[in-house]
Amino acid sequence: MNERVLLVEDDRELRTTLREALAVEGYAVQTAASAADALAQWRHAEASPPFELVLLDLGLPDADGSTLLATLCRGRDTAVLVISARGAEGEKVALLDQGADDYLVKPFSIGELLARMRVALRHRGRAAQPAITRYAHAGLEVDLAAHSVQLDGQALHLTPTEFRLLARLVRSAGQVVTHAKLLADVWGAEYVQHTHYLRLYMGQLRAKLGDDAAAPRWLLTEPGVGYRLASPEA
Amino acid sequence: MTTASTSLHPPLRDWPLGLAAWALGWAAMGWLEGRVDLANLAMVLVLASAIASFWLPAVVACMLAAGSVLGFNWFFVSPKHSLSVDLSQHALLLLAMLAVSWVIAAVMGRQRALARDAQRQGERVQQLQRFGEALRDSQEPAQQAGALFASLEALLGTAPRLLVLHGPLPASDDDSAALLLGEPTAHERSGLWQCLRQGQAFGPGTGRHAELRECYFPLRGRQAAFGAAMVPLTLDATPDADTRAQAQALCDQLGLALQRALAQRLADTAREEAQLQNVRNALLAAISHDFRTPLAAILGAASALREQQGRLSAAQQDRLLDSIDQECRHLSRLTDNTLQLARLDAPGMALTLDWESPQELAGAVLARRRARNGVHEDASRLRLRVDPETPLVRCDALLISQLLDNLVDNALKYATEGPIELLVRPQAGHVVLAVRDRGPGVALAWRERIFQVFQRGDDRPSPDGARTRSAGVGLAVCRAIAQAHGGELRLRARAHGGASFECWLPLQAVPALPAESEAAPP
Question: In angstroms, what separates the C-alpha of A5 from chain B's closest C-alpha?
Fold first, then answer.
């Protein structure tokens, strides 16, 4: 435990509240009130990577999030959670496409924040760790290496595209994957505009899994952002 | 209509008739010669001359009459085959014949001129009437500039140039502030602007700038001009006073219409602004009221926890914390809705349109509700029913989610028991997203009002004794969102009680999907 977290948030009240809540959970928290401040702490940190996780608030007084993200995401050893207010949807999705791990919309509860942080830390440093290739949750078992999908012990037949789509979500289980990322990784970069492919295939996949859209067990929809495969811990 | 070409003379095609009348007259005289005496023969000539002048121009008729009298003298009056006249009586006869023929020709010509004037007058009155009707029927007098253009062209025989102001007179001659017709040159444009600013006609015949080869007419309203017209003149024709008056009358009709339209527009704008101001004031008053209530609850609970913590039971503390949590969520929704309403009201609001699955959006709304099924709302009453045939819809996912969220909120609040169904299905070229409850429904008097900002139905006590509140902005946002998508929000009373709020979104053709074979993973 004792992961080092950098909290970049310009509102003093929220900063204090979050810092204390995270400290109670056992994280070693440092705070920054601006992008410049955050970069200074990043550079002066002893360890490498300086922090395991960064909570980045959009709408900082001195810079937009994407400039900061470029520095933080180098090496993929640091997980980045974006905190955004309503109305910054476009910027939020852009940051996720650029490599931020996940996001939270203000106002959020501490419970949500901690759950997101746990998932992000588990996925951290994918470059160094073996990639996630197995997923098991609520009766669905996916083994990417063996190319097999089982539902309640029964083999499930998916088309190649459906399988690639599910596989991509498995690799980021518990984290949101943006529409653009899914399209680029499953169909190819030239298909990023073909959002109707994604909607229709997600519908097919949901039907094959028997997943109820109103009470989904696996495929969670984040309107306007992307999809999330339910975290195995949930 | 061609007032310009109404001629004083009968058309050329009538000449043969006139000449034929003369030929017949001469044939008759040739045949009658020797059978009747000279005086009677002369009557035939007078008759032929009178008949011929129906079809011949007065001058031609007079010349033919004179020639005929000379011919009569030559052929019939003794001594024949000479122009000399032997009897004074015959001279008198010949002169009388000539005079009568000429008088008849002149009278015919005059008659024709009168008839032509009357016809032209009639046509001009008609032209003015037609133009007046066109202006009355048109929403936008500036669109009628084309009709004025055609009318002036018909009146004067040349294509005019027009300048019609879009709105109030600009400080400088700015061509973008006006509609220009007939492609005026720079010189003509400055003339048009000058005419507009002076509000007076000038050009030949107007007594001002007679040296010009064009006539300028202002489009006069009551106090000022709202445009100008220019008619280039051909070298030989200067329009007479009547024609100029007609042109000015046409221009003034459009000028008055423009003035009326401008006054109407200004009045409308002023009224809209006043209304907007009223709405804003009401909105601010209501917002501050709606925000204060949850804030008071939060502050109350928080201060109680701080000051009485030692004396409160664990259950009481939990209730206070829960209340803070709920009130904050309520405030958050209220803020989102208020901001969204302001955004949708702003001009140039762009939606982030994408192909979305309505089933997915509706499902996500319900899934979120169930995930945080709180003390204050019973998410287990929510059902989702989706027609499997529902196609994808091009919409803004976040806005449609917000719309559904608000409708579900409303249903949970006002229908305190019974299932609440979220229904998604295609219907009549639309996709319908409906939230249906079995609550008390909406009273007839409120069916329209509930969609206006900060109106609310009766606050009914809910079973747990808490007063339900309406955010007062939720349904207004829903309607604005539906309309921003080119759809609409409808409220239907259900057959067996309850209300159905339905968002109708227009369907568009979804691009096709490449076929893929069903294959087991290798």
Answer: 26
What single DSSP character describes residue B375? S
**Residues of A engaging B, defined by a Cβ cutoff of 8 Å:** 86-87, 89-90, 107, 109, 147-149, 157-161, 163, 179, 194-197, 199-200, 202-203, 212-216, 220-224
DSSP string, A211-223: --TTS-SSEEEET
Give the residue among B98, B100, B20 at the shortest CA–CA distance from B55: B20
Given a contact cutoff of 8 angstroms between Cβ atoms, the answer to whether A178 and A227 are in contact is: no
Distance, in Å, from the CA atom of B79 to the CA atom of B2, rounded to the nearest integer, reads: 53
- Measured between alpha carbons, how far is A220 from A102 in angstroms, rounded to an integer? 14
B254-284 residue pLDDT tens:
888 888 888 888 898 888 888 778 767 766 7
Bridge partners of B393, per DSSP, are B356
Q: Is the pLDDT of residue B397 over 60?
A: yes
Q: Is B82 helix (H, G, I), strand (E, B) or coil?
A: coil
Q: How many helices (H) and strands (E) does chain B have?
A: 11, 11
Report yes or no: B25 and B126 within 8 Å, Cβ to Cβ: no
The DSSP bridge partners found for residue B356 are: B393
**B353 touching A (Cβ < 8 Å):** no
- HEC-encoded secondary structure of B188-226: HHHHHHHHHHHCCCEECCCCECCCCCEEEEEEECCCCEE
Note the pLDDT tens digit of each residue in B52-73.
Answer: 888 888 888 888 888 888 888 8
Q: What is the pLDDT of residue B469?
A: 41
Could you count the other beta carbons within 10 Å of the beta carbon of residue B417?
12
If pLDDT is split at 50, 70 and 90, which confidence band does B468 have?
A: very low
> Tens digit of pLDDT for each residue in B302-326?
999 999 988 999 999 999 998 898 8
As a whole number of angstroms, the distance between CA B449 and CA B522 comes to 61
Residue B5 confidence (pLDDT) above 60: no
B420-427 sheet: strands from edge to edge: B382-386, B420-427, B430-436, B499-506, B488-493
